[in-house]
Design a protein that fits this description.
The strands form 2 sheets. The chain has a 5-stranded antiparallel β-sheet, with helices on both faces. The chain has a two-stranded antiparallel sheet with strand order 4-7. It is elongated, with a radius of gyration of 23 Å. It starts with a helix and ends with a helix. By secondary structure, it is an alpha+beta fold. The protein contains 15 helices and 7 strands.
Length: about 300
């Protein structure tokens, strides 16, 4: 098992809770059995799993075919219409999950590390264009514990249009950096930010977006006590915060964060410059007002 697959399985088991990994295996065996597939396919599917909301999704290649599965465990509180909706969603996600081998190949081509792969697969499964000219098999399964679906298509009948899906994923991630760094483990965020920083030219990311990457990258690395990296990133921001303001790249709290980080590195004048522009974005930001009053006209 590759390190990426090992991490996927480990995170799934961690999220699912103690004992759920057995149920995952049983669900996959049931799905492959109703599709008349070998048990080895179930094993490969388990190694390929990723999650989208409450659904487990997996996809593998075997022979000249592709298999996609999706399933979710029931809480026991679902209404009949809710269960019908879960069945429909399972079928739709299974139909998309046949593209997982292609998407894993794409992430490998871009040298994504294992952390990025965990974010990329759910995003791309929901956003990439997938079409099959003919479907070999669709089977649904439902009992009192879980619902799921399995889909089989011939490779020759599947079309996946990436349409710059990698660049769109990176843009989506950058736009949500303030949320991601707050919710995800810091080291995960640091790894993704390092990848974006190292590859922003080939990914054709403009400076406006990279300013946000460097800002949050600096904050994350400060929290990880990687002060050298943090300093390098924050000093990639423009000397004059007016450039950031003119580009509308930061909101008021991001100007606040930038100023605070510059202050940590002893650059009070630059900190004040960023806070001042933050005040222009939002004069009602009380924290910025406190910073502005404290450092304005300070000897």
């Amino acid at each position: 098992m590759t390190s990426i697959k090992m991490l996927c399985v480990a995170l799934i088991v961690l999220l699912a809770g103690a004992g759920l990994s057995v149920s995952i295996s049983e669900a996959l065996l049931e799905l492959t059995e109703i599709a008349d597939l070998e048990d080895e396919v179930a094993d490969d599917l388990e190694k390929s799993l990723t999650t989208i909301n409450r659904f487990f999704c997996g996809g593998v290649s075997f022979g000249d075919s592709l298999v996609g599965v999706s399933f979710t465990f029931l809480t026991g509180d679902e209404k009949p219409l809710t269960r019908d909706g879960l069945k429909d969603t399972s079928r739709d996600l299974a139909s998309r999950s046949v593209a997982i081998p292609f998407l894993r190949g794409l992430s490998k081509a871009y040298s994504f590390n294992m952390i990025i792969d965990l974010f990329f697969l759910p995003y791309s499964l929901q956003n990439v264009l997938i079409s099959a000219s003919n479907t070999e098999l669709i089977r649904l399964f439902a009992n009192e514990e879980w619902v799921g679906a399995i889909v089989v298509v011939k490779k020759a009948n599947l079309t996946v249009s990436d349409d710059k899906i990698v660049q769109r994923f990176i843009d989506y991630y950058i736009d949500r950096l303030d949320i991601v760094v707050d919710k995800e483990p810091l080291q995960h965020s640091a790894n993704i930010i390092e990848y974006i920083d190292s590859n922003h030219s080939s990914l054709e990311i403009d400076h406006k977006k990279m300013w946000r990457v460097w800002l949050y990258g600096s904050a994350v690395n400060l929290n990880l006590k990687e002060n050298v990296v943090a300093s390098e990133m924050i000093h990639k921001l423009p000397e004059n915060a007016g450039d950031v303001f003119s580009a509308k790249a930061f909101d008021d709290n991001e100007f606040l964060l930038a100023g605070d980080i510059f202050l940590i590195f002893g650059e009070e004048e630059k900190a004040f410059n960023y806070w001042a522009y933050g005040m222009q974005v939002n004069p009602l930001n009380k924290t910025l007002e406190e910073r502005f009053e404290k450092y304005d006209n300070k000897d």
